[in-house]
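Exercise 7 asks you to align residues with tokens for two separate proteins.
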Amino acid sequence: MLVPEDEIARRREALAAGGGFPVPASQSPWQEIFRERVEPFSRGMTLRGSECYRDIAARHVPRDNH
């Protein structure tokens, strides 16, 4: 990078002091639901609470869904 170390340090401090990256307000109800229910990309973007339904076919009789 062609950014001086003191500039990187200043930006890092500003980011930490501000609580992280700014997030714009949701522009639709679907975006709001997505943000509430989906884990961040760094955690696999899975639905929060989905671990409760892991291996569900082994625990219950599968439903006909056709």
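Second protein for Exercise 7:
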Amino acid sequence: MRIGIGFDMHRFSRKKKGLVLGQVKFEYWALEGASEDVDVLLHAVSDAILGAAGKSDIGTLFPPDKYKGISSKKILEDVLSIVRKDGFEVISVDSVIIAQKPKIGDKIDQIRTKVKEIIQAEFNVKVKSPEKLGTFGRAEGIGSIAVALLTKNK
């Protein structure tokens, strides 16, 4: 069994709406970044899975200049393909979204369902408020942390 951790954070654009977390849309400011939807949760999950498999991060495997506009779901699907080719299977992923705004709790079950469908493994997500401390507390952006457990097929 192998464990990996992933982290991602992005600032709000303040120019366009359409926040996406775990492939669920929110009527709130979108995040700035190179991917199409800048889904910080899927980015953290992708990096956690890659880390458990001993691979590099998504920024290295999917350089922003080459993959600008790619969907976060496509990144995660490609990550799953990469680790599966090496004989790994995702057992479970646990994650946290760190956000002062918007309120995410009402859609947490939708997020769980959508991500679980993509990774085809156990998935949990929690939301933590930064209690108005620091960058996230000032609602300048959103962060996410994920931990993945993989097993290697023999």
